[in-house]
Amino acid sequence: MSDYKNVLVCVYGEEFSSEETFDQACEFALKEDAKLYITTIVDPKPYASMSRFDKKIVERVKQQAFEQLQAFKQKAEEKGIGEVETILDVGTPKVRIARHIVPNYKIDLIIAGETIGRIAERAITGSISKGIAKRAACDVMIVNNSGEQTTKA
């Protein structure tokens, strides 16, 4: 068994297959007796054009993300995970996770769902989960849509 003590799972939004990823992260955290961090990064860029007409759109998205994080936290606690913490952040997900969350929370392992967003968008910006794996200074497990895992150590 490895020494993973702080496991981060990335959830929320169309970019990640949240439920399957979350379930696998919970199983892993239980097996390793690790603290589970659940994060959502709200990327304000997709809302930039809408914010001209609706100044509070990003705040509403953040509120929705907060509520979903709390629901995931409750599910994790119901599964028997002793230590669960949520992290809501704003910015570019692959950068915020790798450069801010990983070092500040001493993350040992990131579990992220395979990007399932729009094909054209992925071609331009790249996969978020692969971007996290490329930048993170810890192990990364990417869970694809069929539940299979790819790990970058």
UniProtKB/TrEMBL annotation:
Gene3D superfamilies: HUPs (3.40.50.620)
Top-level taxonomic group: Bacteria
Domain UspA: 4-143
Coiled coil (residue ranges): none
Pfam families: Usp
UniProt cross-references to CDD domains, sorted A to Z: USP-like (cd00293)
Similarity comment text for this entry: Belongs to the universal stress protein A family.
Name this polypeptide is given: Universal stress protein
Organism: Salicibibacter cibarius
